[in-house]
Each structure stands twice: as structure tokens, then as C-alpha cells.
């Protein structure tokens, strides 16, 4: 794609601005800022990736992945900002899911440990982990708040914190995983996923693109399961004291 | 069992919910805890069950500070039944077995506890969603009994029940007490407190105003606040 054709494509944003103006949505400024930020961020990332790819250095690759994990952790932790230590729990969960999934993909020979492959795949893993763990934390917080009396009824029967929270733990993990599981069911029918679309646009044979997409699907199933499980089990404890009491402060 | 509340206070959201309460539950009997809404009655039960921690003071069980007793064991010995029964999805049997099964016990005689609360064996495999309010509350008492408690804390267990169910639960409470279980009952219903209480504790604004034999409290209250409360004039006094 030439730069001039990309500039022409930017006129599509004018359509969005026109609709916002015509329908008095009042988001013209947001669209302009959003577009400018997207262009700027992508250009910066493009140059960084260009540098990392050409350097082909394992340290730079891992540093890039680490930055992605930190940013994702920061973003997902906003879903439970009242919970002490939530940034660490979410970030750790995303890191664990990324480490396990990436290691297995490299071990099975699905991808090579080189920046061109590790970084885009990490982006998908970390992005999905971020959304899933954020959803899990949010649901956990809401359910514990709404089911306070029920949980206390369990505790009063001699249940441990873990036993009393088992139901909400299950709900939270499920909530985080469901969007991925649902999208797996309609993959290729309702939606052509980003990676496959990108590969096809890049001239790759659709069958090869499908193989990659199947790998991505397996990878995302594992990554959201690991991140939701880890973040839920790390976080639920903060709602209880060591004496199996539900904390009153949340 | 002897439960001593030694000058306990509970502070939350900038105010005292309970303030410097001293009382010793020492004789087997039915203790009714009365007082206006927000007096700290339910908080007192939660403190005894160690669902919350006193801000000041300490609680002693048979002379041992309860911080030195395993909290799970404590909660089994001091059972608690809430205003809403909170039965868990499943059958009546599964609910009754819950407490013992939490600690890995098997072969629990659920029927024994079901009959102890006056329900027939036909209820054993009933889905809890098909129970009336009174039946559900009796199952929740049976569930607490399955832990073999020495004390039962009851937080307004009949407040949402019809008079017939209330009467059945009251008879059940009296029978359980005769069988040796100490009962501490929070109630808004003064007639109920009079009917079944042996001792009555009157709480007001987090303070224990009076604690006496029930008939003495109702016939001859000592403090002015108690008199106004029993005459239904306490609200005017607050305003």
C-alpha cells in the first residue's frame, strides 16, 4: 500500500465525523483526537518494531513483551481499583498466561522465537488476557458485594474463605472466559478474525491463514483460562481476613 | 458454654455500632436481644460468631479468649441462623449435610436433623426452591444443628414468617433449648421476646442499657430509655 493511498483512506474518518455532526452526537472532537492518537501511536510502534526486528535481539523482544504486559496490567486493574494490590495480581496473571502460552507455542514449533513472530502473537495473547482478567475482577468484586450475606451464611456454617467464595470464583472465571469461548463458536462464520484477515490481505494463501488462525484460537483459549483462573484466585483472598471473615471495607 | 463479652466495641463508618458492652451468657437459657433498628443487635451476633472482629474489648468462650480458638471450630460450636434462610441450590438433604461436608465428613444423618426441626422425611429430597418461608427457615436451623452446636445465634429468624410458621419456630427454639442448646435470639417482636425469652438484653445506640430476666424487664424496666422503648415512645425521644 502506498502512502498516498493511505492518505486517501483517511478520508473515511470524515464519514464518521460527518455522521457525528449530522446526528449531533457531539463526538467530532473525540474522533479527531482518537484518529490522531491512533496514527501517532501506530507510527511510533511501527518504528520501534522496525528497530527491534532489524536488531533481532532477544532482550529487546522480551523488553517489548514486558512493556505490553505492564500496560495491559495497568489498564485491566482499573476494573478493580478499590482492591489493594490489584495491579500486581492482574499483571502477574497476564504475565503467567503469556509466559505459559508463548513457551508452549515455541516448544511445539508453532512460532519461532524471533521478534517478527513473538511480538505480534504476544500482542494478541496479552490483549485478550487483559480484557478477560479485567472482566473476571469486575465480576468477582460485584458478586462478593451483592452476595455478602450469602457468603457470611456459608462462613457461619464453618466454611473457609475459599469454600464460601467458591460460587463467585466460578462465576468470575466463567465471565472472563465466555467472550472468547463465544467468539470461538462463530469464528469464520460471523467474523473473519484480525490475524487471518491480515494474512490474506498480505497475500498469504487462505488455507495457511486459516492454520494460523486455528493456532491463535487454541492459544487464546489457553491464555484467557490461565489469566482468569490466576487473577481470580489471587484476588478473592483480598476480600477475606485470615480469620475467614469477609472484609467490611469494600 | 459460657460466652463473656468483655467491654466490646465495634466502630465502623465513623461511629460506634456497639459501645463498651459487657455481658456474660453463662446459664443455659433463651436470651432475647431487643432494641430499636440500628441498636447493634445483629452486630453483637456477628461478633460472637466472629464474622467480624471487635474494635475494642475481647470475647471469652469458657474463659478462653476466642482469638485463641480455631475460628472454624468456634463457628461450628456457635451456630448462626440469619433472617433470610440462604439455602443453597440443591435438595434439603444437601443443605443439611453442608456444614459437616465442608470438613469432609460423610454419612451424615440428615433425616435426624430434619426431624429435629419437625419436618418429615418427605422433605429430604425436596428441591429447596419448593419450600415455603417457614419450611426454609426450619431447614436452615436443621443445617446449623448438623454442626452439633452448643449455642445457636438466631438473627430475627421469624421476621418474614406468618404467625403459624412463627409459632412452629418458637416451639422449636424452646425444645432445642430444653435439649441443652443455649439460644441468643435477636428479635423486633416484643411479644415473641416475652413469650420465649428467659433473659432479655436491651440495646440502644450500641449500648447495653439493661440485661435482666425477661419478665422483670417487661414488667418493671429500670431505665427511662427501656420504659420509653416498651411504651413505643422511644422514637419521639430520638427526634
From TrEMBL, chain A:
<dbReference type="Pfam" id="PF03649">
    <property type="entry name" value="UPF0014"/>
</dbReference>
<comment type="similarity">
    <text>Belongs to the UPF0014 family.</text>
</comment>
<dbReference type="GO" id="GO:0005886">
    <property type="term" value="C:plasma membrane"/>
</dbReference>
<feature type="transmembrane region" description="Helical">
    <location>
        <begin position="117"/>
        <end position="137"/>
    </location>
</feature>
<feature type="transmembrane region" description="Helical">
    <location>
        <begin position="214"/>
        <end position="236"/>
    </location>
</feature>
<keyword id="KW-0812">Transmembrane</keyword>
<dbReference type="InterPro" id="IPR005226">
    <property type="entry name" value="UPF0014_fam"/>
</dbReference>
<feature type="transmembrane region" description="Helical">
    <location>
        <begin position="6"/>
        <end position="22"/>
    </location>
</feature>
<keyword id="KW-0472">Membrane</keyword>
<feature type="transmembrane region" description="Helical">
    <location>
        <begin position="187"/>
        <end position="208"/>
    </location>
</feature>
<feature type="transmembrane region" description="Helical">
    <location>
        <begin position="86"/>
        <end position="111"/>
    </location>
</feature>
<keyword id="KW-1133">Transmembrane helix</keyword>
<feature type="transmembrane region" description="Helical">
    <location>
        <begin position="58"/>
        <end position="74"/>
    </location>
</feature>
<protein>
    <submittedName>
        <fullName>Putative ABC transport system permease protein</fullName>
    </submittedName>
</protein>
TrEMBL record, chain B:
<protein>
    <submittedName>
        <fullName>Phosphate ABC transporter ATP-binding protein (PhoT family)</fullName>
    </submittedName>
</protein>
<keyword id="KW-0547">Nucleotide-binding</keyword>
<feature type="domain" description="ABC transporter">
    <location>
        <begin position="3"/>
        <end position="230"/>
    </location>
</feature>
<dbReference type="Pfam" id="PF00005">
    <property type="entry name" value="ABC_tran"/>
</dbReference>
<dbReference type="GO" id="GO:0005524">
    <property type="term" value="F:ATP binding"/>
</dbReference>
<dbReference type="GO" id="GO:0016887">
    <property type="term" value="F:ATP hydrolysis activity"/>
</dbReference>
<dbReference type="InterPro" id="IPR005670">
    <property type="entry name" value="PstB-like"/>
</dbReference>
<dbReference type="GO" id="GO:0005315">
    <property type="term" value="F:phosphate transmembrane transporter activity"/>
</dbReference>
<dbReference type="GO" id="GO:0035435">
    <property type="term" value="P:phosphate ion transmembrane transport"/>
</dbReference>
<dbReference type="GO" id="GO:0016020">
    <property type="term" value="C:membrane"/>
</dbReference>
<keyword id="KW-0813">Transport</keyword>
<dbReference type="InterPro" id="IPR027417">
    <property type="entry name" value="P-loop_NTPase"/>
</dbReference>
<dbReference type="InterPro" id="IPR003439">
    <property type="entry name" value="ABC_transporter-like_ATP-bd"/>
</dbReference>
<keyword id="KW-0067">ATP-binding</keyword>
<dbReference type="InterPro" id="IPR017871">
    <property type="entry name" value="ABC_transporter-like_CS"/>
</dbReference>
<dbReference type="InterPro" id="IPR003593">
    <property type="entry name" value="AAA+_ATPase"/>
</dbReference>
